[in-house]
Design brief:
about 120 residues, mainly alpha
């Protein structure tokens, strides 16, 4: 069974990692780490550089598949956050490897929690 503390700890590790490498993006995505669209976004283009290279319209299309109501606003906030970050932090290249793995772990823990919840109900 998934312990809430394990899920909370993983989410905290994830948010701390984002804060250290991509602080502007963490302010936008951190509070929404529970949302499937955010987890999907962080798994697909694994770096803010690749996300920034995508147009806002393509982000809207991608996010709207899993977040129809908040896709457009979230895409706009992400683009603004990425434009705020002007400094490249040491470790950014390594983050493109670590970030998708942390995202997969977090998504797996949330999936397990949801599976257990369905079985119990």
């Amino acid at each position: 069974m998934i312990q809430p503390s394990k899920l909370y700890k993983q989410a905290t590790v994830f948010a701390d990692f984002l804060t250290q490498i991509y602080p502007a993006q963490e302010r936008v995505l951190g509070p929404r780490l529970d949302h499937p669209a955010v987890l999907d976004l962080l798994q697909r283009p694994p770096s803010p550089a690749s996300t920034a290279a995508a147009s806002e319209k393509s982000l809207v299309n991608k996010l709207s598949k899993l977040a129809p109501r908040m896709g457009k606003g979230l895409a706009h906030e992400i683009c603004l956050a990425l434009s705020e970050q002007t400094v490249i932090v040491p470790g950014t290249n390594a983050a493109t490897i670590v970030l998708p793995r942390l995202t997969h772990q977090l998504a797996a823990l949330r999936g397990q929690r949801d599976d257990v919840a369905q079985e119990v109900e």
